[in-house]
């Protein structure tokens, strides 16, 4: 059992351990976001999808209900995770800087094409709308990040 734990290389902060299948294996990467290097210091821990339709209901005075559907609304993808920091890490360096630079380079205003997000064997195109980065001051030097993407509905022709 002890062979599945490996010390996180390059860490100058508190000792951290990364669970792996074997000592020499790279961590399994299920989520891939084009332009963002997720690694053992910047790990995605959750992803959520939401989508809806543009619908309006009308109830008449005599009790009839009519529903009008205009198609799919813009969908949302949220990818969140944790980031491990060294004590000398500043906002523009290391892993906090990766998230900040990714947002600056890939946000919907500055980039005309969508970002490709791959989850296992499923991939889709999305536009980066916002990011949040929380750096906690604690003994673990751990922060949290969240990226929010919009997925445009495919037009029906």
How would you describe this structure to a colleague?
The chain has 157 residues and is mainly beta. It is 8% helix and 46% strand. It has one helix and ten strands, in the order E-E-E-E-E-E-E-H-E-E-E. The strands form three sheets. Strands 3-8-9-10-7-4 form a six-stranded antiparallel beta sheet. Strand 9 (122-135) and strand 10 form a beta hairpin. The radius of gyration is 21 Å and the shape is elongated. It starts with a strand and ends in a 6-residue tail after the last strand. The relative contact order is 0.20. Residues 1-21 have low confidence and may be disordered.
What keywords describe this structure?
elongated, 1 helix, Elongation Factor Tu (Ef-tu), domain 3, 157 residues, two-stranded antiparallel ribbon, six-stranded antiparallel sheet, mainly beta, disordered N terminus
Taking the alpha carbons of the first and last residues, their distance comes to 56 Å
Mean of the pLDDT scores?
A: 75
Beta-strand residue fraction: over 45%
Instruction: Summarize the amount of helix as a percent range.
Output: under 10%
In the predicted model, the low-confidence regions spanning at least 5 consecutive residues are 1-21
Class of secondary structure makeup: mainly beta
What integer value in Å does the Rg equal? 21 Å
Main pleated sheet: 6 strands, antiparallel
Shape: elongated
In the CATH hierarchy, the third-tier topology is known as Elongation Factor Tu (Ef-tu), domain 3
Q: Mind telling me the CATH class?
A: Mainly Beta
**What's the number of extended β-strand segments?**
10
Strand order, largest beta sheet: 3-8-9-10-7-4
Order of helices and strands: EEEEEEEHEEE
Going by CATH, the architecture would be: Beta Barrel
Number of separate domains: 1
Number of helices: 1
